[in-house]
What we know:
Layout: E1 2-3, E2 9-11, E3 20-26, E4 32-37, H1 44-49, E5 56-59
Antiparallel strand pairs: 1-2, 3-4, 4-5
Amino acid sequence: MRYTPAGEVDRQIDLPVPRPTAMAFAGEGHRQLYITTASTGLSDEQLAAAPLSGSLFVCAPGVAGLPEPGYAG
């Protein structure tokens, strides 16, 4: 979910898996969104219904992320 400064939902990205775990912007201009997902702890039925669980997804959400500062330590 992406929210406006007023707290309203601006957009939503639906995935074909029940457990998205983390996301990060990368690529040229930080315009690609990488989303990791988990398959651990899912039942055989859940895995059969969502066979892409545990995959890495990439999308272009139409907005850019901000660059992270490098580790200085």
